[in-house]
């Protein structure tokens, strides 16, 4: 029973640490709202077409002797 008590205390400490980290990195009240300004987004440039992939070796039929 002593190990169960120690596990419960350790679990509570881990849970408190996880909640503290969550509030530290994401303050309550942000509700998922981003803080980015509402400037129009720039359209990304069209990607440059890559060269075609090299083809493998050509295998020809070898006449049998």
Describe, in plain words, how this protein is organized in 3D.
With 65 residues, the protein is mostly helical. The protein has a domain at 1-26. It has one helix at 2-25. The mean pLDDT is 78.
How are the SSEs placed, and which strands pair?
Layout: H1 2-25
Gap between N and C termini, in Å?
A: 85 Å
Unreliable runs? none
Radius of gyration: 31 Å
Q: Mean pLDDT score, rounded? A: 78
How many helical stretches?
Answer: 1
Order of helices and strands: H
Strand portion: under 5%
- Structure classification: mainly alpha
Question: How do you describe this structure in short?
Answer:
With 65 residues, the chain is an all-alpha fold. It has one helix at residues 2-25. Helix content is 37%, strand content 0%.
Summary keywords:
elongated, 0% strand, mainly alpha, 65 residues, 1 helix
